[in-house]
Write a structure and sequence with these properties.
This protein has 495 residues and is an alpha/beta fold. The chain has two domains: 119 residues, no CATH class; 347 residues, P-loop containing nucleotide triphosphate hydrolases (Rossmann fold). It is 45% helix and 9% strand. It has 17 helices and nine strands. Strands 4-7-3-8-9 form a five-stranded parallel beta sheet, with helices on one face. Strand 1 and strand 2 form a beta hairpin. Helix 2 crosses helix 3, helix 3 crosses helix 4 and helix 4 packs antiparallel against helix 5.
């Protein structure tokens, strides 16, 4: 469509003014879409179907979306003043607003990861070689896809056949063996660096929410303790700012998912002091009262390694001034590649030419919904409405930084969905009813995610609750036990 463009210039990051070029927006949207399988992957009947009809193909749709970006930019009168044009960052914000407001969530996520990855390269936090582009480069994904193909669980149809034919035990055992082998390799890398002369004083276990950091941290340290290493585990939750400094949104929700929800400056000061052998007065945070209620003296012995399990462990300000040679970074994410295949098409009312993977974050949403419901008294509806904060945080300071990792662990298992399904379907389902979202009509992200996850659960063959509770089928030290219950992992005490 033709739109009136009144934006003449753009302010670059160095404050130079250059001519506004709408084609740059078209190309950026198209690249983000191509990296995630094309814009057709985001087709949603009743939400963006008319945009597809207007654009015809990916280039046309990207140009249509860029027109919407121009319309939004024109709506701010400040941008029409010759010497006060929109900045590059403001234009990127509007691109994301347009993509998310029209249901192009896969493309928006890829664009966000590209955006912040480039940001961290410019900041010198990662190198060009560590830039992971849309967050899931082929070097990371292809081995996972090949493993699932070899085991016949790369599609929903294949996974369902394994469940219904009674072959799930073999798949569980093979998947857990692969996970344990990855942990063996990670532990070996720690020891190899120490033997090569690096003085490892700090180990970070980081990754997106509900990826399995707790189980992975315990299992890694078990291996390293057998090699004679000693640890001091620091609870970073104690560094949260008081509730009064976390403003609520219109549904009384708070964004705890950003790294700046923590007192980064105090944490960084304490980490450097501990590494220097000094004693710190670590805060004690009461979640019941929403504030710090005291302090505790903590010191790290010279032969101890600081162990830190944190969403944002790779966030550069946390370790500012600390020699990277003193750190080992382990990244974990639940990344089980599962193609929707033909079984999903009747449920989704979508026609597309290629294959489409289920969304990794949807499985993590189910994991966290279950954990929040049992341990935090948060109903799954609250977790669903909160999830946009989760994605915003992990696409800013978690996923784009995973190129820093010394080792990457996949915490996603091909049997996760069959194991989780009994909790979210049937008479005792904890999953919200569709009518529960009626009063949140403006939460497009939540409604899209709800519909997608509901249809995914409908398509997957689930285990029975008796099978879920059977420790001989799903061992007590499996990652998924963090969320479904029955974990036999002993959580180490902090400090």
């Amino acid at each position: 469509m033709a739109v009136l463009n009144e934006i003449g210039k753009v302010k670059k990051r160095n404050h130079a003014l250059v001519k506004f070029d709408q084609e740059r927006i078209v190309r950026a949207i198209a690249r983000a879409a191509e990296s995630s399988g094309g814009l057709e992957q985001d087709y949603l009947d009743g939400i963006n179907d008319r945009i597809f009809a207007a654009g015809h193909d990916d280039t046309g749709i990207a140009r249509f979306l860029s027109d919407l970006v121009v319309v939004v930019l024109n709506g701010d009168p400040h941008h029409l003043v010759a010497n006060f044009p929109p900045t590059v960052e403001e234009i990127q914000d509007v691109v994301l607003h347009v993509l998310r407001s029209t249901g192009f969530t896969r493309t928006a996520d890829a664009y966000t990861c590209f955006r912040w990855g480039h940001h961290w390269v410019r900041q010198g936090a990662i190198t060009a070689d560590q830039f992971v582009r849309n967050g899931y480069p082929p070097a990371h994904m292809n081995p996972l896809i090949e493993w699932n193909c070899a085991h016949g669980c790369d599609t929903i149809e294949g996974l369902n056949e394994i469940v219904t034919s009674g072959r799930i035990k073999e798949l569980v055992d093979d998947a857990l063996d692969a996970y344990e082998s990855a942990l063996d390799a990670a532990a070996a890398r720690v020891i190899a660096r120490i033997e090569a002369g690096d003085e490892i004083r700090m180990i970070w276990v980081s990754g997106p929410s509900s990826s399995g950091k707790t189980t992975t941290t315990v299992k890694l340290t078990q291996r390293l303790r057998r090699e004679g290493l000693r640890f001091l585990m620091l609870n970073l939750d104690d560094y949260f700012w008081p509730l009064i400094e976390h403003p609520t949104d219109w549904i009384n929700d708070r964004n705890y998912e950003t790294p700046e929800a923590l007192d980064i400056q105090l944490l960084n000061t304490h980490l450097r002091a501990l590494l220097a052998g000094d004693q710190i007065d670590k805060p004690i945070y009461s979640f019941k009262e929403g504030r710090r209620v005291g302090t505790k003296p903590v010191r790290c012995d010279p032969d101890q390694i600081l162990l830190l399990d944190s969403l944002h462990g790779f966030y550069p300000p946390m370790t500012d001034g600390i020699d990277p040679r003193m750190m080992f970074r382990l990244y974990i994410e639940a990344m089980n590649p599962l193609y929707e295949s033909d079984v999903m098409k009747p449920l989704l009312d979508i026609e597309w030419s290629g294959e489409r993977l289920t969304r990794f974050e949807d499985v993590r949403l189910l994991r966290r919904s279950l954990r929040d419901n049992v341990h935090r008294n948060h109903p799954p509806l609250s977790t669903l409405l909160h999830w946009h904060y989760v994605r915003e945080g992990e696409l800013f300071s978690i996923i784009p930084l995973k190129g820093l990792a010394d080792a990457v662990i996949n915490g996603g298992m091909p049997f996760d969905l069959p194991v989780l399904k009994p909790f979210f379907t049937g008479e005792n389902s904890i999953w919200p009813r569709k009518s529960d979202l009626d009063q949140y009509a403006s939460f497009l992200d939540a409604r899209i995610r709800y519909n997608r996850v509901t249809k995914l659960l409908d398509a997957v063959a689930g285990l029975t609750m008796d099978q879920v509770n059977d420790l001989s089928l799903i061992p007590g030290d499996a990652v998924v036990r963090e969320f479904i219950g029955g974990s036999t992992i002993e959580i180490p005490h902090n400090e």
